[in-house]
Design brief:
alpha+beta; 236 residues
Length: 236
């Protein structure tokens, strides 16, 4: 029998973060830790501004804060700048906090990047800039799939730096930090005028990133799939 789930959303500067769990107190603790980790990252950037501005992987010292280490490692695997992983990193940290607080369902979504561990089905909608598809398909995540990170990137929104032409790239990975960085990298790879060739280029890029489990690429009505994905479902 499904258990009652609590939901809460809050704004953290430019971020809009949503949390879902079977334990209200776990959500409260996660919000505190997310805000603390964001402040820690901002303090780190003040002393290391290159961490914020580089579009390439960057080395950090082993004693750097946990969020910095996670972002740097994800960026290294995906071949992008570490800020490509910030939303996913915060989602991961919030999810881990909820689990430590005894949650059986722990879902954190930060700007479309999702970290989830669950013992009952959870649906994550896939957003795309291609007309008619956004929010119409999703991933049904069950206990055997989790913990899991899901991230979606688009080359056709104004809030991201992208060198590709994908309407959307959704990556499923071991954690949301890696999924976030990988979605950016794969999105960059979906380039060129030939749609089919560009999608294949993106699939090849996803396969080359350690820790990526699967990918969904949508461009101009064409779709490419690879890997071990949770069940795909239609959303009404």
């Amino acid at each position: 029998m499904p258990i009652e789930l609590f939901e809460q959303g809050f704004a953290l500067k430019e971020s809009r973060i949503h949390l879902k769990s079977d334990r209200k107190e776990a959500i409260d603790e996660a919000i505190k830790d997310i805000m603390k980790s964001r402040r820690t990252l901002e303090d780190y950037i003040k002393g290391h501004p290159e961490f914020q501005h580089t579009l390439k992987p960057i080395n950090v010292l082993p004693d750097a804060p946990e969020i910095v280490l996670s972002m740097a490692e994800a960026a290294r695997k995906a071949g992008v700048g570490p800020m490509a992983a910030v939303a996913g990193a915060l989602a991961d940290l919030g999810m881990k906090t909820m689990l430590r607080a005894g949650a059986k369902v722990a879902v954190v979504e930060d700007g479309g990047e999702v970290a989830v561990t669950t013992d009952q089905p959870v649906t994550v909608a896939i957003l795309s800039s291609f007309p008619g598809l956004s929010g119409k398909i999703g991933l049904r995540i069950v206990k055997v799939d989790s913990p899991l990170g899901v991230a979606t990137s688009s080359s056709k929104t104004g809030r991201v730096i992208s060198f590709g032409k994908a309407d959307s790239v959704t990556v499923v990975a071991a954690d949301a930090c890696l999924a976030d960085a990988a979605a950016t990298a794969v999105c960059n790879a979906v380039a060129g005028e030939n749609v089919s060739v560009s999608i294949q280029r993106g699939l090849d890029a996803a396969k080359a990133i350690e820790g990526v489990r699967g990918v969904i690429i949508i461009r101009e009505g064409q779709t490419g799939l690879w890997g071990k994905l949770p069940e795909m479902i239609g959303i009404k």
